[in-house]
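#lab-general

N.A. 3:47 PM
ok so I finally got the sequence cleaned up, no stray characters, all 517 residues accounted for. can someone with queue access submit it? mine expired

B.Y. 3:52 PM
send it over

N.A. 3:53 PM
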Amino acid sequence: MSLALVQSRALLGLQAPAVTVEVHLTNGLPSFTLVGLAEVEVKEARERVRSALQNAGLEFPHNKRITVNLAPADLPKDSGRFDLPIALGILAASGQVDGSKLQGYEFAGELSLSGELRPVRGALATSLALQAQQIDVQLVLPPGSAEEAALVPDARVVRARHLLDVVRAFLPPGSVAGRDAEVGDNGDDGWSRLAPRPPVPSTEGPDMADVKGQASAKRALEIAAAGGHSVLMAGPPGSGKSMLALRFAGLLPAMTVQEALESAAIASLAGRFAPERWGQRPTGSPHHTASAVALVGGGSPPKPGEISLAHHGVLFLDELPEFPRAALEALREPLETGHITISRAAQRADFPARFQMIAAMNPCPCGFLGSTQRACRCTPDQVHRYQAKLSGPLLDRIDLHVEVPALPADQLVQAPAGEATAAIRARVERARTLAVARQGQPNQALQGQEIDTHVQLQDTAAKFLHTAAARLGWSARSTHRALKVARTIADLAGSPATEVAHVAEAVQYRRVLRSPA
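B.Y. 4:20 PM
back already:
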C-alpha cells in the first residue's frame, strides 16, 4: 500500500504526547515533503533518512512524491527522534516492511548517514509517561536510550543498533530473514528486548566529617534535611559555607524508586542523565550569572531549568545577592508549590520542582561584617544596598537563617574530625519516618489546617511563639514556617508534641541579617 502509519512520541515537559507519522507515496514529480509543525532539526531528517536507506542497501523511492505528516499538526516537534519512524514509514509504504506488524510498537531514534541508530534525549521521560498513562506498547530505541527507558518497572523496551536490525524484525510474511529476526532476542543481537532493571539507589558522596567545627550550622542542616526545609547561610569568606552545602545531599534519606525515576526523567529531558549517578540526589549549583530562564526553565519548546533538574535534590545558590534580581524573584512560587508552569504564546509546560534550596552569602560586600578577625571596610549604606538585593518576600520563604562564623586557625588545625554523614543521616531518616507516618509528607509540605492538626503545639509553646512573632514583626508565613521547623525539631527529639524548647530553637533560625551599628 502507498500509505503507512508509524507511532512515535514527542516531548512536552514530562509528558510524551503521541505522534502518528503518516507517510504517503504517490506518482508525480519526485519530491520529499515533511509537514506537521516540524522544527529545523526534524526537517533535516529528509537528508538523513535518504542517505541511511541508501547506505543500508534499502530502496529509496526516488520516482515518487513522498509526503510525511507528523500528526497532530499543532504540536511542535523537535530533535532527531523522528528519523527512525519516518524511515520505517517510507519502507512500509513502499512494501519493503510489513506495515501491519508495526502495530503495538512505538519508535524513536536518530539515524546516522550509515543507518546506525543514535541516542535521543528524553527516553526515560517517555517510558515514565507511558507507565503513568498505563499504555501497553513496546518502545524501540537506540543503544543508550533503551537502557534509560528500561529503568522504569514493567517497561517493554527493545534495543536496536542499526536500521537493518529494525527492518529484519518487520519484513513481510514468508521472508526467511524476517522469521530469523523474530526469534533473535538475545542481548548479543542488534535487536534485543531489555528486561527492566531494578534500580539500587545510592547515597555516596562527600562526608560531613570533613567539616571541622561549625556545630550550629551542622545542626541547622540536620533539621533542614529531616523536614525538607530551605536554608540561608551567612558568613565571611572561607568559613565553610560551600563545603557544608555540597555535603548536604548526603544527609537526605535514600531516594525511593519513584523519586529516582522522576529525577532521572528530568535529567534525561535535558540530556544530562548519567547511569552512574542513578539514585543519587542531584545537587545543582548554577553560577550567580545565571538568568531567570536558566533557573526556572523556558525556551521554545519549554525546557527544564536548574530548579527542576534539582527535583528531589538540592539547589545550591552560592553568592546569593549576586544573582540577578529577576532570577531570585522567580524562585518565590516554586519554593512554595514545588512545581513550575512555563507558559509561552504557543504552548505551556509543567515541570516538578520539589527541591531544597541551600543558599550562601556574605554579610556585606567585603564579607567581614561582624568578624572578629578582620575589620569590615563597608559603609552602612553599602551594607544596606547589598542586603537589600534579597527581597523580603524571598527571605520570608527561607525557613532557616544560619550564621556561619569563621574558625580561628588554631581551632581549625587542632579540631577533631566532625560527625560522619552516615550518623547524621540515621537521625534524619528516623525523624522523616515519624513525619511521614503521622501526616504522609515531610513537615515542610504541610499547608493550612494540616499545620494545626499535626504540629500538636503545647499551650505554653503557643504563647511563646505568639510573643516572639509579635516582637519580631513576623508575617503569617514566617510564623507558619517557624511552626514547621519546630515540628521537625520535635521529631528529631522523638517528642510527640511540640514544646517550648523546640519553638525557641526554631525562633533562633529566623533571625534577620545583621546590619552595621
